[in-house]
Each structure stands twice: as C-alpha cells, then as structure tokens.
Specification:
Blueprint lengths: L14 H7 L5 H13 L5 E5 L8 H5 L4 E3 L4 H13 L3 E7 H7 L1 H10 L4 E6 L17 H6 L5 E3 L4 H13 L4 E4 L21 E4 L4 E5 L1 H17 L4 E5 L2 E3 L3 H10 L2 E9 L4 H11 L6 E6 L10 H7 L4 H11 L16
Helix pairs in contact: 2-8, 4-6, 9-13
Length: 345
C-alpha cells in the first residue's frame, strides 16, 4: 500500500474527485486513507491493527504516535481498544472479519457492545472475499453474530464513496460500530444517491414489481445488475441500499413492500442471520404480507479453493442468476398493497 498518494484533491472535501484520481484503490484501502485524513480533524482518533499494516500505511505515516500494530492478537487488540476508548479516545480496531469478529467474539460482546465502548471495529475479508485462503479466512456469519449484540451499529458500504462517508459517520458516532469491508474488489457506483446517514437506507432505483434490498459491494452491485436484466424482460425493480443493517431502516422496508409485489434480499453473507433474516423479521413484526426471497451465501463452508468470482457464482450471486430466480417466483397477478404510514423522498 502507498502511504501518500500524490493528489491536489482533498479526500474530506471532494471524495468523488479524490476517488476518480485513484481508481485502482479497493474499498479497504480507501478506508485507510479516509481514516488517516479524518484523524487530522480529531486528535482523539487512534488506530490499532492486528498484523495487517505491512508498512506504508497512510495512518501510520501521518499519525505515527497514534498508530499501533499489535500483531496476530485480536483479543488483546480489542482489550486495548476498549481501554483507550474509556480513557477518552475514539479507537479504530482493524483486522480480518473472520478473526476480529469470530476469534475475538467475547471481547466484542463484553468490552465493546456491553460496555458501549467508543470503538470502531473495521474488518476486511467480509463474506468469501478471502477466496483462495479458504474457510479459515471467510466470514459468512459475522453479521448474524453482531446483529444479535445490543448497542452495536452494523454497517456494510456499497463502494468506495460510501466507504468514505461511512468512515466519517462512524467516527462521529458515539458508540461501538462494526464496519464490514471486502478485499481487493474495486467498486465505483456511477449512480445518483441520497446523502449518507447511519440507519437510513438509500434508494438507488425506483420500480414497482420487485423490491431488491442489498448491502455491501457485492450485494448492491449484483442487485443493480439484476434490476437491469429484469427491466429488459418488462419487470420493474426497486433497488434499496441497506448499508446499515443495525439499526435497520424498517420504514424503508415497509415502503418497498407497499410499492412492490416481491421482496428480494441480496448479500454476501449466509442467508441465515444477515439482511435476509432482518427483512423477514420486519415483514413479520409489521405484518407486511410479502414473500421474501433471500439471495446470498448458502449455508455451507466452501472447502474448495477458488477465485472470489467463482465462489460467488457457486452461491448464485451473479446478476443473471438472481434475475432468473426472481422470474421463477415473481407473482404473475397483482397483490394488494401494504399501507405505508409515510412516503419518503
């Protein structure tokens, strides 16, 4: 990674232009630069890392006295992070999702969530982004685990720009946050979007036949691809970017159910426990009377090595595969609309 990228554009003030000047950066690298830049505005921000820096980290280069690479000891990293947080710091703790969430789960539960520590747990390798590294480095159950922890905000940005906005938002938020990122995928969504706000889903595309609710780089990109393919077959798809899984924007789910005949969740996470489960819970609790098709990682571990794209295809996470599944279950006759308490812009 490069500690300093030559650019006359300020990432904080013009993130779109900054990203355009650095089209090669994946979201996990965009996050590093965003964290380093925003730390210039707040001296309380400290960055802890579990053996991922490897030299040349932009935060280390800009703020060497506030950067600590602790090695392969995720539990210790989170213990230290929570101690610093209780001392008044805003702490970023960075690791792989399989280790930062699963290996150090007890520390996340008791030290972050239970204690409401002002720690931002940021993890790469969400889903099967670890690809050839295999199940030890895949994180297909992290969202299910963390959604069930009280006090924790859970965020999964859709591309580089949203990663910048989410990084700023989580640093400004007082309390524990989990930010889930991928690995080497580079995503730049060239699509109008509303301002980023924690807890408020973003409408990316309007439609009245199918409601596609997605999160993360893979989920949102696949949902948009599927929407285009469905449109060519005369099926209008509404696409909702649910970047914050907790707290869930229930009103956005209600409104999408009111405007469409079928709800479809798309995510790079086990179909159990993630966004699919969250939407099903909302449909039941609000009595929305809509079928929910859950598209995501099947309930299995991938023991065979393969590229990220190959693994996603094996789970049916391609635009064409999703569109085909939707066409197979979409109600052919209109259903009664669910009343929406409010209509949002």
């Amino acid at each position: 990674m490069s500690a300093s990228l030559e650019s006359t554009v300020d990432l904080a003030w013009a993130p779109e232009a900054w990203l355009a000047a650095h089209p090669e950066l994946s979201s996990r690298l965009v996050f590093r630069h965003a964290a380093a830049r925003f730390a210039e505005e707040d001296a309380r921000v400290v960055f802890l890392e579990a053996d991922l820096g490897g030299g040349g980290d932009p935060f280390e280069a800009r703020h060497p006295q506030r950067y600590f690479n602790l090695g392969i000891c995720e539990a210790t990293m989170l213990d230290m992070a929570c101690g610093l947080a209780h001392g008044g710091h805003t702490v970023i703790a960075h690791s792989f999702a399989a280790f930062g969430v699963m290996r150090a789960c007890e520390q996340v539960r008791l030290n972050l969530a239970y204690a409401r520590a002002n720690v931002k747990l940021v993890c790469d390798y969400g889903g099967v982004a670890g690809a050839f590294f295999g199940p030890t480095h895949h994180a297909i159950e992290d969202l299910a685990v963390l959604r069930a922890m009280p006090n924790l905000t859970v965020v999964s940005p859709a591309d580089g720009l949203e990663t910048v906005h989410a990084t700023r938002a989580m640093l400004q938020h007082d309390g524990p946050v989990y930010l889930r990122l991928g690995r080497n995928r580079v995503t730049r969504l060239d699509i109008p979007r509303p301002p980023f706000e924690l807890g408020r889903a973003a409408l990316l595309r309007e439609g009245d036949d199918v409601g596609l609710l997605a999160h993360g780089e893979v989920g949102v990109s696949v949902a948009l691809d599927a929407a285009k393919l469905l449109d060519a077959q005369g099926v209008s798809a509404r696409v909702l970017n649910v970047h914050t899984l907790k707290p869930l924007d229930e009103e956005a789910v209600r409104e999408t159910a009111a405007r469409t005949r079928l709800l479809v969740t798309v995510e790079e996470h086990n179909v159990l426990g993630g966004l699919g489960s969250a939407v099903c819970e909302t449909v039941c609790s609000l009595d929305l009377q809509r079928r929910v098709l859950r598209v995501g990682l099947q309930d299995r571990y991938d023991s065979r090595a393969g590229s990220h794209e190959a693994l996603l295809k094996g789970h049916g996470l391609e635009g064409g595969q999703v569109a085909e599944r939707i066409m197979g279950v979409l109600p052919r006759t209109p259903v009664f609309a669910v009343e929406s308490a409010t209509r949002r812009d």
